[in-house]
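Practice record 12: protein with adenosine monophosphate.
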Amino acid sequence: MTTPYEDSNIFAKILRREIPCVKVYEDDVAIAFMDVMPQADGHVLVVPKAPSRNFLDADPATLAALAPRVQKIARAVKDGLGADGITIMQFNEPASGQTVFHLHVHILPRWEGVELRRHSGDMVKADALVPLRDRIVAALEAA
Ligand code: AMP
């Protein structure tokens, strides 16, 4: 049985503009913003606007529309930050590590020999995220 979606989660609040984010991208399907507890410098979350708890209850049409956005932003993260690679992660239910219950995809730039920091670790101030966001946005605009 699937736990119902609740719109009190923090990403629903970001989508309703009730709390701020360091935004990377937005269109009619999705918003992308910097993760405030980044596991790598340049950690971005891509969040579909259509509500679902996670991948398991999402409308397949939402997943289909989300995938090209994830690809586009992943390419911009890699190009904009000069990363060697990209890890894409997505968690479903607390047992898997999910902590925010609105579907989202993690985009993590990777550099050879650099380990990821722990999940939901130390919070970073928005000021520290803005320069990284700007480099990703510049890569999106150049694509
Ligand atoms: P998950 O464990 O997959 O549900 O991931 C939730 C992610 O959201 C974690 O990586 C958190 O660091 C991140 N996060 C939580 N609150 C915020 C917020 N207000 N703005 C940006 N990222 C957030």
